[in-house]
Amino acid sequence: MEANNKIELQQGDITKIIVDAIVNAANSSLLGGGGVDGAIHRAGGPAILGECRAIVARQGGCKTGEAVITTAGRMLSKYVIHTVGPVWNGGKYHEDEKLANCYRNSLQLAIDNNCRTIAFPNISTGVYRFPKDAAAKIAVDTVNYVLSGTDKIEKVVFVCFDEENYKLYENLLTTYRA
Ligand code: AR6
After folding, report:
1. Is 6 helix (H, G, I), strand (E, B) or coil?
2. Helix axes 163-177 and 132-147, enclosed angle (nearest 10)
């Protein structure tokens, strides 16, 4: 199957999606926060934080662009992949590259854990203020690039919470398929 036919777009709450792995836009402490991170911990329950604490004890958190995996707790998906997006600082601090690393490393971790379906939120586009249009392009380009080099992933769902992101992704994916 063509890489871009494996990409789906949905608008809504990522905690309600059923896939092998849901990606969380976390922070480097891995100890929870607001936005999608708060929603995932609330929906999945304390087992997620328990595993995050064990990871912190082992490796001391998660660097920007990197990813770690835990249970999804009570959610219907199997795993949560926590990745740390860059804080937008004007674009001169390798923010693009760091955001691409989030998508790349999350997909690799999914593959390493035999996950065939994965859902991404719009990493860094909330509290971390990454411009939504640039972030969407990086997300779609990076996911397409990884999918074109592997047959291990069957489906990638971009889950947009807000209308603005949904429209941006819709346009980008239409262009890709044209
Ligand atoms: N489902 C899907 N997307 C959501 C949901 C949800 N339930 N809730 C919010 N979003 P943000 P960041 C969207 O701020 O910018 C946290 O406190 C939201 O509309 O969650 O990467 C962490 O602990 C936006 O488009 O993450 C970090 O400290 C996108 O998710 C920090 O925020 C990301 O917004 C990370 O900031």
Report:
1. helix
2. 40
Q: Pocket around ligand 1: residues whose beta carbon is below 6 Å from it? A: 13-15, 25-27, 33-37, 39, 85, 121-128, 159, 161-162, 165
CA–CA gap between residue 175 and residue 158 (Å, rounded)? 16
The string of pLDDT tens digits covering residues 82-104 is 999 999 999 999 999 999 999 99
- Count the alpha carbons within 13 Å of 172 in the hemisphere toward its beta carbon: 24
Q: What does pTM read for this prediction?
A: 0.97
Domains and CATH numbers, the chain: 3-177 (3.40.220.10)
Contacts with 38 (C-beta within 8 Å, 6 or more apart), sequence order: 32
